[in-house]
Structures are given as C-alpha cells and as structure tokens.
Write a sequence for this structure.
C-alpha cells in the first residue's frame, strides 16, 4: 500500500507542473480522495509503518499546499479584475436606479438614450465574482424592467424591446444551430461562447415565449458542446503521437551531431550534406502539431539545443575558413604592393645590369611566395591575380626593353669604332663600313617593329632606337660621300 500512496504523490507532482493549474482541480480532488481513503494497509494483520505513513502524508499535504497556493494566486488576480467589473456594473445600476426613481413620463423619454448607452456599456464589462453574478444580473434585469414599466408609454416601448429582443435571440438560436455544420469545432465552440455572452446581455422577451426560446438555444448548444468534448479526446491522442514523432527527430539530430561532439574532422561537402539533412528534419518538425501541453516547452528546448549545437559548430568552421581567406588576401595584397613598388623604382630611375638583376631576384622571390599562399574568396581571387600578373608582366617587359636598349647602345658604339677603323684602313674599308651600317639600320628598323607590336610601355626605347637609326643613316651618308670622293680620285 505504501507504494500506491507514493505513486499518488508522484502523480500529484506531475499535475503541479501543468501550465493551467485551474484545469487540474478534478484530478487533484480525485487523488486527494483516494489518498485518504486508502490509508489502511492491505494486510490487516501486518504492523503498519507509522513513520513512513506520516512522511507520505506530510509530503502529500505539502504538495496540496503548493497547489492551493498556485490556485490562490491565480484566483486573487481574477478576483481583483472581477471586483473591478463588479464596481463598474454597480455604478451603472446606481445610475439606472436614479433614472427609475426620479423619472416621470417625460423623463422616461428623455432618459431612453442614456439607458441604451448604459446597456451598451454593461455589455463591454467582463465577469464579476461568481457569488455576485446572479444577484447583479437580476438587479440589472429588474432595473431595465422597472424603467420600461414606469409609465404607459413604457408599455409600448417594452413591447417594442420584447419584439426586438425576440428577434435578436431568435437570430442567436439560428446562429447556434448553424454552428453544427462548422467542421472547425474549436472555432465553433468559441463562437458559441460568444453567442451565450450576447444572449445574457440581451433583454427579456415576452414571458410566454421565454422558456421555449431558451430550450431551443440550449439544445443547439448541447450539440456543439458534445462535439467539443469528442474533439479534445481525439486531440489528446494526436498530441501524444506528435510527442513521439518529435522525440524521434531529436534522436536523429543527436546521431547527426555525434561527429561534432566527438571532435571528428568534417569537410565542407560533409557540412553541406549535413545541413540539408538538418533542414529536412526542421521542415518535418514544423509539419508536426503540438505535443501535450506539459511537454511542449521541454521537448522544444531539447530540439532547439540540438539544432543550435549543429549550426554553432558549422558557423565556427566557416568562420575559421573566412579568417584563413582574409589572411591569404592580406598577404597577396602585400606581395602585389611590393611588385608595384619595384615597377615604380625602374620607372623613375636609370638602372644598370646590377640593379635589374637584383630587382629580378626580388620579383621572382615574390612570385614563389605567392604560390605558397592558399586560396582567397572568389570575390577577390580573379581580380587580384590579374593585377599581380599585369604587374609582373610589366616588370619583365621593362627588363626586356632595357636589355634591348643596352644591346642597341653597344652595337652603336661598335659601329662608331668600325667607322673610325675604316677611315684608317682606306677605299675598300669604307665599302665594308657602308654595308655594315646598312645592315645595322635594317636590323634596328626591324627591332622598332618588334617593340611597337609587343609592348605598349616601350615608347621611350622606341624613341631611343629611332634616334639611333637616324644617327646611323647620317653616318651612312658620310661614308657614301667618302666613297664617292675616293672613287673620283
């Protein structure tokens, strides 16, 4: 028997976890009755464990006290609101009484609009404390009836109101009967409650019609109420099924998160596949209805924790990738700036072979370092590579142009030396010098065509070559003149 009492204590604990404490009263009363009615041990000859029984009873009483405290707190808030509503309705009643007590025939007509305003205000006020409900409603009805009964004209007005009230209450009966065809039973039940509220606020009808009209309204209400009860019985079964389906999703999420918990390596493709699986489970979760109310929050918290675990780990993984991309981008931009700086140096100075060789080593070292750096985001990779390639190409093009210029200067010096030698060696040496100059001019002109088609940055070198050609042509004319003079002699 002790175990049975303990089971009832545990059941009471579970009931106290319900969100709506006011809804568990019948279950608590049932447990209370069973607990105190099953106090005797099953074996009448066995010696009862008094200490254990007292401990169980003390624990049970403590739980009952917690239950009562929760109900008291809710009831107190409701009571305060209901008392405020009661005060408002009492004020309306007081004004109505004053209108009834001080009215004459003319006063009734004068106060008719105010009476209707008070009636409209009365309808907007919520419930009052239960002990006052019938009394206040009765007083309200009496005030209305007294007001309309004051004078002869009131009889006519009352008949009109009876007729109007009959029309309104008949419409409410018809509306209640139509609700039987509403497949949404929750919506129908709420609508029925609204109809009952409206019924209570409508004034009386003729005495001979009151009972039949009420029976019609009550019969239509009974149909909706029975459907409402059946609906919630089915809903509770569905909620239990939803709970089991949601628990299964949580288990699948835990299995998917195992590599994360265990610190196993996960690639980007694996993250993409896992993300799709999680999104599918989330879509499935959203398609499932509510679980039982006492489990809804806890089951959602567990589900949310597993989803958060996955997406936080994924975000951390891709944050590290973004950080790596950013570091790579910073390094590559720094290398690009160094190549650009080298280009600025040769553009603003006349370099010799030693300077070009030293700069070439620097650029080639920078190219080698570039290759060791990992990827950057697509947003920057192509444009950054183009800038780097253009900068490197510009350097090596300038180097080739400088080398070609140096070779041209060396050839020009050689040609000048040859002219001088020819002058010293006679009539035949001048002809050889002429032929050599013609060949150099042809070669130089070919080089100009090459540099013009291959590089847009070789204008300075082309100009230097052009000057060289003009000098060679001038020298060639001198040699030709010398040859003519020698031949004439």
């Amino acid at each position: 028997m002790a175990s049975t009492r303990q089971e009832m204590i545990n059941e009471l604990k579970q009931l106290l976890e319900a969100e709506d404490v006011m809804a568990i009263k019948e279950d608590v009363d049932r447990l209370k009755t069973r607990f105190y009615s099953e106090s005797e041990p099953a074996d009448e000859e066995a010696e009862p464990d008094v200490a254990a029984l007292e401990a169980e009873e003390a624990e049970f009483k403590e739980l009952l006290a917690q239950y009562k405290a929760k109900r008291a707190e809710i009831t107190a808030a409701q009571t305060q609101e209901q008392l405020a509503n009661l005060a408002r309705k009492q004020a309306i009643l007081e004004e109505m009484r004053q209108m009834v007590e001080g009215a004459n025939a003319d006063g009734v007509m004068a106060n008719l609009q105010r009476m209707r305003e008070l009636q409209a205000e009365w309808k907007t006020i919520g419930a009052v404390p239960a002990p006052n409900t019938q009394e206040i409603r009765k007083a309200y009805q009496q005030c209305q009836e007294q007001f309309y009964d004051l004078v002869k004209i009131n009889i006519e007005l009352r008949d009109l109101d009876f007729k109007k009230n009959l029309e309104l209450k008949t419409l409410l009966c018809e509306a209640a009967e139509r609700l039987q065809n509403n497949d949404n039973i929750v919506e129908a039940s709420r609508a029925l409650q609204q109809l009952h509220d409206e019924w209570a606020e409508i004034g009386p009808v003729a005495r001979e019609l009151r009972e039949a009209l009420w029976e019609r309204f009550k019969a239509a209400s009974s149909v909706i109420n029975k459907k409402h009860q059946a609906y919630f019985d089915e809903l509770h079964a569905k909620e239990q099924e939803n709970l089991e389906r949601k628990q299964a999703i949580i288990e699948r999420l835990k299995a998917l998160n195992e590599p994360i918990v265990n610190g196993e390596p996960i690639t980007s493709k694996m993250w993409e596949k896992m993300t799709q699986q999680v999104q599918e489970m989330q879509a499935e979760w959203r398609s499932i209805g509510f679980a039982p109310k006492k489990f809804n929050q806890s089951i959602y918290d567990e589900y949310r924790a597993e989803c958060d675990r996955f997406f936080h780990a994924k975000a951390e993984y891709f944050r590290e990738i973004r950080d790596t991309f950013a570091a790579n981008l910073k390094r590559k931009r720094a290398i690009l700036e160094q190549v650009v700086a080298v280009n600025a140096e040769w553009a603003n100075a006349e370099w010799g072979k030693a300077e070009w060789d030293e700069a070439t080593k620097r650029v080639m070292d920078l190219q080698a370092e570039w290759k060791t750096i990992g990827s950057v985001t697509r947003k920057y990779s192509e444009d950054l590579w183009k800038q780097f390639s253009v900068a490197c190409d510009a350097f090596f093009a300038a180097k080739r142009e400088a080398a070609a210029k140096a070779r041209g200067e060396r050839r020009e010096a050689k040609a000048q030396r040859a002219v001088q030698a020819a002058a010293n060696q006679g009539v035949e040496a001048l002809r050889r010098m002429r032929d050599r100059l013609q060949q150099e001019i042809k070669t130089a002109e070919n080089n100009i065509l090459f540099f013009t088609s291959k590089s847009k940055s070789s204008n300075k070198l082309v100009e230097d070559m052009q000057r060289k050609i003009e000098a060679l042509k001038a020298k060639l004319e001198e040699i030709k003149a010398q040859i003519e003079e020698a031949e004439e002699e």
